[in-house]
């Protein structure tokens, strides 16, 4: 059963990542999240400050976290393009397939 996160709190943020990794059956080398305050304390291209629990989850799965920089639309566009790709080619066919 699909359970959507009801809040943007840290526990739901981490749980969404874990469920995503489980759904795809693996993890990417790098995750580029938006600057949600639950996961990212301060975003910086050279030295982002990640929430400790979120960082521990990333360390457990061996994935890097590089948040999109604030006020940098090009970073955000890359994240949104990835979401659009996943919705078009991964999620919709899975939902429509009997």
Descriptive account of the structure:
- The longest helix has 24 residues, at 73-96.
- The chain has one domain.
- 9% of the residues are buried.
- The chain contains three helices and four strands.
- By secondary structure, it is mainly alpha-helical.
- Mean pLDDT is 75; it is low at 93-97.
- It has helices at residues 10-24, 52-61, 73-96, and strands at 30-31, 40-42, 49-50, 64-65.
- The strands form two sheets. It has a two-stranded parallel ribbon.
- 50% of the residues lie in helices and 9% in strands.
Give me some keywords for this one.
mainly alpha; two-stranded parallel ribbon; 3 helices; disordered C terminus
List the helices and strands and how they pair.
Elements: H1 10-24, E1 30-31, E2 40-42, E3 49-50, H2 52-61, E4 64-65, H3 73-96
Parallel strand pairs: 1-4
Antiparallel strand pairs: 2-3
Short description:
The protein has 98 residues and is mainly α. The chain has helices at 10-24, 52-61, 73-96; strands at residues 30-31, 40-42, 49-50, 64-65.
């Amino acid at each position: 059963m699909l359970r959507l996160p009801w809040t943007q709190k840290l526990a739901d943020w981490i749980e969404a990542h874990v469920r995503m990794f489980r759904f795809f059956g693996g993890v990417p080398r790098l995750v580029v999240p938006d600057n949600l305050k639950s996961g990212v304390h301060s975003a910086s291209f050279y030295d982002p400050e990640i929430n400790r629990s979120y960082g521990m989850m990333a360390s457990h799965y061996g994935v890097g976290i590089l948040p999109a920089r604030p006020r940098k639309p090009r970073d955000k566009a890359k994240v949104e393009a990835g979401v659009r790709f996943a919705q078009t080619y991964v999620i919709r066919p899975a939902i429509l397939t009997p």
